[in-house]
Design a protein that fits this description.
By secondary structure, the protein is mainly α. The protein has a single domain, classed as Glycosyltransferase. The chain is built from 21 helices and 7 strands.
């Protein structure tokens, strides 16, 4: 079945040159979008991805309790959390990144969320409650529940699954600085969110973030090495360590957990800012692949986040990070020939590898965030003969959001349930199989195949789900087997929440 999507080092031979005009005003143009409605739906999606015992206020009614014995084989409670995509495995790496971006969305744009803020906070807590369980034992982080190969050989509802629920962990003898650092980032970012909602919970998250960060720092190594057979090729750390480059473990570890240290720093500045300063841009390798940001690579996020301190005039010694952030912005300008960033004829950011919308939403989120930082500092970004103003960055980000919502050559919304035309055959087990209410009898592992292969629309709408999206030519097959295009993921939606919150107030 579907293999997880990740960035690929393969570069397309030709870079499409798309002008500013064609990017910003590509047809068809919808007169206006209901960003508030899209925001509500983008958050609702996370309820459809919940694992564990569902709460009384669960709004996605076709879902039921699932995976209630997770962790039992290891003597721990690992119920809860999110299924990352259209399968039934709980992968800690993308779940942590999802949590980080949801929290960052709230930190920067929560004031724009109105009544949806409470639902966004609930979405974060559903994940952090699980991450606290996964990090409850000092020196251990549980990073995955479920055997991906067993799971991907079946097409069954999470409520029915009888596949192996193997528990995978990292510890002192089997390190995973990458996934531990990402988990620390998630806990630290969430601690900032809960400062104004639940101070005791906020302190718990921060204390756990520091402990997990220290573990990642002290026991350095890649989880792809420790758990290669379980995590590869699904969420293999292709941008991190290589077994043959053992001498670079120390260097690479620092860049992998840098976002964690930055977010810990925001929560506990006096203790951590000197630490980040000592591990400068060279050691963090934040100048590498400056336009990458996702569950597998933090470079652009590190540069943008640290640049805020520079722009505020509080940390001039981080100037190299700002230079990298500026370079990131320039690399995204349409018409610039950059080997790792392209635009489709319809104006969509396109990067090689699967599930392209993960790049669209995460990079657009950073465009918007940096635009706000620049606005507050009254700064612009010089890009050769072009100047990128904060207003231009907002336009670029908004154009990507509008493309997702329907301003594209197909006139198709890539968010399920938004607009009149959207994907109906998404690569998602729970959505594509009859609900428990409609079909109480169990549907076995192979019995679900007929639903997977059916040309019929999915019976359950996973409202708010944003799929992997069209190819470089703006073509989209609304078909379950095309998982790279038709599968939704939590880490596509997480940064979109912040974008939609901003544009719902500043359309």
């Amino acid at each position: 079945m579907a293999r997880k999507s990740f960035s690929s080092p393969v570069i397309f031979p030709a870079v499409l040159a798309v002008s500013f005009a064609s990017l910003l005003f590509a047809n068809p143009i919808i007169a206006s979008h209901d960003y508030r409605d899209a925001l509500r739906k983008s958050i609702l999606f996370f309820e459809g991805q919940r694992s564990g015992r569902l709460p009384p206020d669960q709004r996605v009614k076709w879902r039921r309790d699932s995976a209630l014995r997770d962790g039992s084989t290891a003597g721990v409670d690992l119920t809860g959390g999110y299924y990352d995509a259209g399968d039934n495995v709980k992968f800690g790496f993308p779940m942590a990144f999802t949590t980080t971006l949801l929290a960052w969305s709230i930190i920067d744009f929560g004031r724009n969320m109105g009544p949806e803020l409470k639902n966004a906070v609930k979405a974060v807590k559903w994940s952090t409650d699980y991450l606290l369980k996964a990090t409850s034992k000092p020196g251990v982080v549980y990073v995955q529940v479920g055997d991906a190969f067993s799971d991907h050989s079946c097409w069954e509802r999470p409520e029915d699954m009888d596949t192996l629920r193997t528990v995978y962990k990292i510890d002192n003898a089997h390190p995973g600085s990458d996934v531990a650092g990402e988990t620390a980032a998630a806990l630290a970012a969430a601690s900032i969110v809960f400062r104004s909602h639940d101070t005791a919970y906020s302190r718990l998250l921060l204390n756990r973030a520091v402990r997990v960060f220290n573990f990642a720092d002290k026991h350095r190594g890649a989880y792809s090495s420790s758990l290669h057979a379980a995590v590869c090729p699904f969420y293999c750390d292709v941008n991190g360590y290589q077994v043959r480059l053992n001498l670079l473990f120390t260097v690479n570890m620092n860049r992998r957990i840098a976002l964690g240290s930055c977010l810990v720093a925001q929560s506990l500045k006096e203790a951590w800012i000197p630490r980040i300063h000592s591990e400068n841009e060279v050691v963090l390798r934040a100048g590498d692949t400056i336009n990458e940001f996702g569950w597998d690579n933090k470079h652009a996020g590190i540069n943008v986040l640290i640049s805020k301190e520079v722009l505020m005039g509080k940390a001039e010694y981080f100037e190299s990070f700002k230079q990298n952030a500026d370079g990131f912005i320039c690399s995204l300008l349409p018409g610039v020939s950059h080997p790792q960033v392209q635009y489709s004829p319809g104006g969509l950011i396109f990067k090689p590898g699967g599930s392209n919308m993960q790049h669209v939403t995460s990079l657009s989120f950073l465009l918007l965030v940096y635009s706000n930082y620049l606005s507050h500092a009254n700064k612009v970004v010089p890009c050769g003969e072009t100047t990128a103003s904060p207003a231009l960055l907002k336009q670029l980000a908004k154009r990507q959001v509008n493309y997702i919502l329907g301003d594209n050559p197909l006139g198709l919304s890539y968010m399920v349930g938004y607009g009149s035309r959207f994907p109906r055959r998404i690569h998602h087990r729970g959505s594509s199989l009859p609900s428990v209410a409609a079909h109480p009898a169990r549907i076995g592992c192979k019995a679900g195949s007929r639903y997977f292969l059916s040309p019929n629309p999915n019976p359950n709408l996973l409202v708010g789900a944003v799929v992997g999206g069209p190819n470089i030519s703006d073509a989209f097959p609304d078909s379950r087997p095309y998982f790279q295009e038709s599968e939704p993921t939590t880490y596509i939606n997480a940064p979109l929440v912040g974008l939609l919150a901003f544009f719902s107030v500043h359309p």
